Amino acid sequence: MTRVLIAGLIVLLFSGGAAAEEGEGWNLFAKTGLALTQSSFSNNWTGSETGAVAWTWTFLGEAERQMHPRLHWSNALKMDFGQTHQQDKATGDWAEPIKSTDRIRFDTVFRFTLGTWVDPYLAGFLKTQFYDERPGVQNEPINPILVSESGGVARAFLDEKRRKLVTRVGFAFRQLSDAFSPDTTSASGYGRQTTNDGGIEWVTDWRFATEEERTVYLSKLTVFRALFFSESDNVKGTPEEDYWKAADVDWENTLTNKLTDYLSLDFYFQWVYDKQQDKSGQYKQTLGVGLVYQFL
Asked: Looking at residues 119-131, what average pLDDT do you find?
């Protein structure tokens, strides 16, 4: 399935555009944006504020096609990266930039459209970041990496060009590779570790777009309940013994509005629950106005 992910990524980035030019029926959407905020103050400014520069780059690409009357293929690539630069009020020096957002996610889904109430499907995703900035980590690129392969049945309640609502339930296998997992046998105290789990997965994708894609709303709700975990023996007898059995929830929402041809108002909200990371839910929210360019 990892090869399927790579093949889908290649199609999304390269062959999708060529297919559209040849009239082969690809439905394509791609846009990128840059949001920037800046502030500075004179040396004799009496307030407590400090100078800062914050920027965020985003990319969203989608490519889907009815490959055959009985096979539909959809791909989505989402990337975000941003940093904040802050000035020391006392010295006037600029500190090292702090990463504010970092995400790479690629999804691919093969749905077998057999004309029945539900469709069988095969799917996969790859999720990582541009570089790892955890304490003690030396900016390791593309780390950690989470790969998932799944299969089951799907139901498309809406399947139009601008409105889609597809939900699917199946069994998923996941592999998490981390170059900086704790390792007491290593001189650095870290070592690459790959963990595996598998269980029931439920995913619902909702897409709504207005004419000319001026407003686009994307929502993805993923619920995963592990039935096995490769490291379960290592936590036996600890308070965290059964944490891996709790359902993981990931709900992403993206709303983009083109105010003009090159100016966009974007809102992003993500709510995550993973008991192995934190016993409470976590959320991330961003709101910004910036330059945007829509390729397709």
From this structure: 95
Domain 2-37+51-294 falls in which CATH fold? Outer membrane phospholipase (ompla); Chain C (2.40.230)
Residue 127 CB contacts under 8 Å (≥ 6 apart), including other chains: 103, 104, 105, 145, 146, 147
The enclosing H or E element of 20 equals helix 16-21
192: left (phi over 0), alpha (psi -120 to 50) or beta: beta
Residues 6+ apart with CB under 8 A from 265: 256, 257, 259, 288, 289
* Among the listed residues 172, 70, 64, 173, the one whose alpha carbon sits nearest the alpha carbon of residue 119: 70
pTM, entire model: 0.83
pLDDT bucket at 281, cuts 50 / 70 / 90: very high
The DSSP element (H or E) to which 268 belongs, if any, is strand 263-273
Residue with tokens 């790579």: 6
